[in-house]
Amino acid sequence: MKLNEQIARDLLRIRAVFFRPGEPFTWASGIKSPVYCDNRLTLSDLEARNHVEQGLAETVKQFYPGAEILMGTSTAGIAHAAITAHLLGLPMGYVRSGAKDHGRKNQIEGKLLPGQRAVVIEDLISTGGSVIEVVEILREAGAQVLGVASIFTYGMARGLARLEEARVTNRSLTDFDTVAAIAAAEGYIRPEDVSRLLRFRDNPSDESWITEGRA
Asked: Where are the beta strands (DSSP E) in the chain?
């Protein structure tokens, strides 16, 4: 079985990715979404966790062979960065969402050396804004960021464009299209819902997919 399909099945099985096209979720931004994603759940399932961490380790080895340190995003990427770094025998650290207001007021936790080749570990990519911010913080600290390894990407046009503009390469274990296709094949959603999901993926601000296909 291909890795992207295995991870998709894992995410669906543990409901880390949960589709509800008939009763959309509402994001903090107000956008209606047919999908809920919580990859933190992979940490609680031994089989899914093993597939994810081995997949991230293989991704780093294949696409970023010069990696010298892994840096997790706060907070969802921290545990995955730690486990993957252990598998690869690499040091790790993480980037806070904001600098501490006490002590040394660090925003980067862990020892990061100037010029060190880093790979960012992220749980999911949507619009790309948060991971780009992490990359920029690391670059400002003198790191050479090789790219990002993530569990899941929506593949939204806006996110892909922002990553390209910021010169950030991302490699995800699986993606929205793969998960949607497997969800339909295995009965999590109706086959006719796939086109609605992909319309959301293509343009989240267009809510016409919500009423598409309703009787």
From this structure: 17-19, 25-26, 32-33, 35-37, 69-73, 92-95, 108-109, 117-125, 144-153, 170-175
